[in-house]
Amino acid sequence: MRAALVRPAEEVHRHDVPLRPAAVAMAWLGVGLPHEVLAVPGVALAPHDVLVAVEMSTICGSDIHTVQGRRHAPTPLVLGHESVGRIIAIGDEGARAVDGAALHIGDRVVWSVTVSCGHCDRCLVGRTQKCRQLAKYGHARIEPRWELTGGFAGHVHLRAGTGIVRVPEALPAAALAPVSCATATAWAGVARGAALRGRGVPDPSPSAGEDAEVLACERVLVLGAGLVGLTAAVIAAELGGRVQIADPDPARRAFAERFALTAITPDDVAEEGFDLVIEASGHAVRAALDAVDVGGAVVLLGSVFPADPVPLDAERIVRGLVTVAGVHNYTGAELHAAAAFMAGRGRAHPFADAVGAVHPLAAVDAALVQAAAPGAPLRVGLTPR
Asked: Locate the Alcohol dehydrogenase-like C-terminal domain: which residues (predicted)?
């Protein structure tokens, strides 16, 4: 069922913010159609809303799937959910970051892909990314009073219920924009795997010391060296795991080796040899189930598009005491941890180099073509400035 839009009550007081010049968003109208420029002369902020000026957005695989017609999306919409920007206006009653601190105009921030109500049964048990009234940046139809709904724009209107995290000034935008999708999803997957292995909650801070080695001596396999898989492998290695990452693409394997990872081909994966297997491509679920050892865990991250069903050897899972879990999106706490990782241990790695090209916002159609082409960089960026 398609996610419903979170709709504020009509009687909510709103703070009008005129924009001179008008904000520009690139509106996607449907498969095979070019984007059109949407000018937004102002926004009406509800009491806890935030308006962000976009510094950079990156093109995620789901954006490509949308424009190719491989995933359903209402139109018109503004694509883009991997972004970093700066707060330029806040609703009359203020807004707070995930860590509870007050947000201020001028703060550099990343934000969650989801908007959650905070009071449904799913939100109350911590599954905010599956809120009953969920809205998603880059996936929601343009609505009256919520036109700036995605990152392929000069500004984004962040609704109350969005997880917002402040980020350091010193980090490059190319490293920070993917935090709100690839990095946070990777962190959520590794953290889930650590929990399934009884290893505790990972600490992303650079000063964590031995407390951060929650995967020490764990044999970890990551299948897929896209940005989610690459990031998951780096996180697992920084948490002490003995990590291998498998991908059929030699260019991706070579890029993974720049992160001090052991990169192998799928044919070189040993069967039944890993304590934790993270499937990040969506194409290697069978291989993930085959590679896990007795008592191990498999975390599925990549199966976010239609694919053929995978045969399940239930007897092997039962006799092998194997745990299989699916992770989709992330919570606000996981976004905060992912940003902290990128600002801490992640700084030692060339994540900014994953953005292999940056286009002006007006060239969004050409950027999407490049991002979908064979041999494309892991990310293509868009900047309105």
From this structure: 228-342
Single pTM value for the model: 0.94
Contact (CB, 8 A) for 361 and 153: yes
- Contact criterion met (CB below 8 Å) for 298 and 325: yes
Give alpha helix (H) positions in 81-169.
Answer: 121-124
Amino acid at 281: S
Of 23, 4, 27, 14, give the one whose Cα is nearest residue 365: 27
| Cβ partners under 8 Å of residue 292, min gap 6 | 272, 274, 275, 276, 277, 298, 320, 322
pLDDT in tens, 100-150: 999 999 999 999 999 999 999 999 999 999 999 999 999 999 999 999 999
Q: Is 304 buried (19+), middle (13-18) or exposed (0-12) by CB count in 10 A? A: middle
Residue 206 scores a pLDDT above 80:
no
Q: Rounded to whole angstroms, how far apart are CA atoms 19 and 159? A: 18
Biggest distance spanned by C-alpha atoms of the chain: 65
> pLDDT > 70: what percent of the chain?
96
Same domain, 161 and 64: yes
Report the 10 Å Cβ neighbour count for 267. Answer: 7
Q: Which residues contact 348 (CB under 8 A, 6 or more apart)?
A: none
Residue 11 pLDDT greater than 90, yes or no:
no
pLDDT band at 3 (very low <50, low <70, confident <90, very high): very low
What total of structural domains would you count in the chain?
Answer: 2
- The burial class, CB within 10 Å (0-12 / 13-18 / 19+), for 14 is middle
Which range among 35-39, 222-226, 310-314 shows the weakest confidence by mean pLDDT?
A: 310-314
Whether residue 309 is preceded by a cis peptide bond, meaning omega within 30 degrees of 0, is no
Q: Tell me: do 217 and 145 sit in the same domain.
A: no
Same domain for 47 and 133, yes or no, is yes
What are the φ/ψ torsions at residue 134 (nearest 5 degrees)? -60, 140
